[in-house]
Amino acid sequence: MQILIQSPIGHSIRLDLHYFYNSILQKHPVSSGQEEEIIKSLEFPFTIRRSNRDRTVSLYYSIYMNRMLCSVVKTNEQYSFLITSYPCDRVKIGEVLWQK
Q1: Residues 43-84: pLDDT tens digits?
Q2: Whether the Cβ atoms of residue 14 and residue 1 lie closer than 8 Å to each other
Q3: I need a surface site. Which of 8, 27, 45, 92 has the fewest CB within 10 A?
Q4: How many Å apart are CA 1 and CA 92, to the nearest integer?
Q5: Which domain holds residue 37?
């Protein structure tokens, strides 16, 4: 099952629940049960940055329980999709694509 999420920069981001449960949660078990927060981080981030390593990757940052949540989105010619999501302590350096 897939969920489509609209980002503030006009991207429709695919969240594949099979991939989420079988890949993202395996790498970041702390994200277990945080599906709604991850969706909110894509819909209502406080900043979106372009990755310095891969120009097709955007980092969506939001605040959750006094920490930051970084959701990583890859965009190709057809669509955008969630790669991973994890708690973090700081915003990475990168081109600002959008700021609240």
Answers
A1: 999 999 999 999 999 999 999 888 899 999 999 888 899 998
A2: no
A3: 27
A4: 31
A5: 2-99
